[in-house]
Design goal:
Strand order of the largest sheet: 1-3-2
Number of helices: 10
Structural class: mainly alpha
Radius of gyration: 20 Å
Largest sheet: 3 strands, antiparallel
Helix content: 55-70%
Strand content: 5-15%
Order of helices and strands: HEHHEEHHHEEHHHH
Distance between the termini: 49 Å
Number of strands: 5
Shape: globular
Oligomer: single chain
Amino acid sequence: MAEIGAWITAAIDSGRYQPGVSLAAGVIAADLQAPVALVRLAFTDLTFAGVLKRSGQRTSVPATGDEEAVRTQYLAARLRAQMAHGLYPPGSTLPTGPEVARLFVTADPVVRGALGILEKDGLIHRRPARPPLVLEAAGLLSPSPRSTPPLGEPAQGRFSVLQIQTSVAAAYARWHKRPYVPAAAAVREWQQLRAMARQLLKNHPASPHAGRSLRAAAAARAREVESAPLPETTLLALWHTACLAAAVGELL
């Protein structure tokens, strides 16, 4: 059992299991070819030692202040990119805090922190009981590089509405439960949702007046999220994919 605990601890230290990720005893038992009962006992020991956290039936790597700070900085960067790409030009407003939390599938503290960063940078002005106002400085932002499908990516067939709904639900579930997902699997899920977004966006031509209708605004958001590059860390990749799922869901 000590060897199992040491392996899990090393996996956390190496970044294989990142803060917030849920651990499944059955999966680890299969990886180590060890009895599930011994893995569960190792979970108990590591929980008492503070290496793992138990909440109900969920065992996970404890989130840290650093992890929340990373998510806050990432959300600020995503909103900055959306302003740079014209979704929120100077003089317009960002979505309200609760709406940002919904669109980016995150909690209020992360949203407040991200908006605080943007305000400190002189890009927005927060107002009581009103959406944040985008300031003139946002017009000076340079658009970030976009992610294009690799040349070797296989062509996708047409997806049914049910397939798209299932993929959207799966992306939400993975982000909320945060199981360990191999990096390659996270990339495949993102690529499939991108293909679904591109299919749906064929019915929504790009418009310079995206703010004139809710449907056009949803399409503009989906187009920006679909083309944004996938983060390098697995946990942020799961979050980014959940955000893409939220954008795809708005188009259904």
